[in-house]
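user: can you give me the structure for this one chain? tokens are fine.
assistant: on it. calling the predictor now.
[tool input]
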Amino acid sequence: MTILLVEDEQKIADFVCDGLKERGFTVEHCADGRRGYERASERSYDAILLDLMLPGRDGLDVLKGLRSIGVQTPVILLTARNELGDRIAGLNLGADDYLAKPFYVEELVARLQALLRRLSGERQNTLQVGALTLDRIARKASLHGRSVELTTREFSLLEYLMRSAGQVFTRAQILEHVWGYDFDPSTNVVDVCIKRIRGKLAEVDASGEAPAFIEAVRGAGYRFRPADA
């Protein structure tokens, strides 16, 4: 499991990093709120450990920003503040748990494991690549937290590509999986459907990056761009 630790106190950061690594976790550390926000929004982590008192951008603002763009990575707040108001504010902004300093690394590990166990069931029903999320049960899509209205066929095609982000699929493979019949070289139904999906994603994407989510690979087919590409 890969954990992002955003903590500016070096002694605490060393303590947490060493303790988690000894227990098999992979840990990335940054000491600045702005840099922590950038990493959390650009890369995929199993959980984020987020201090509240940070230089550059405080933890509550980082958390608020991440949730506003649709990043749903589990967050545990690490704080020296014990006031009820801070804990409530963090939970209301979307934090999954909190741990007051000082703490034992064993307790932190137990909190992480409990959190990831609880969310594992939900993740099986949710597919997420970057800021785009598919709810497989409700058959709904959202980008940066904004709903994207897709037809059943469009949802199935997008799900097929997202499940193996980065892998190139031929038009024949897509046609067989999504439409359920053999490839007809005279049909452009796959291209038309992908064009519609791109358009719908673009409608709700203020960044203008949505059309590039599904990439055409010359002479091969299509792929969904990985989050870190």
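assistant: here you go. The first strand starts at residue 2 and ends at 6. The CA atoms of residues 131 and 144 lie 5 Å apart.
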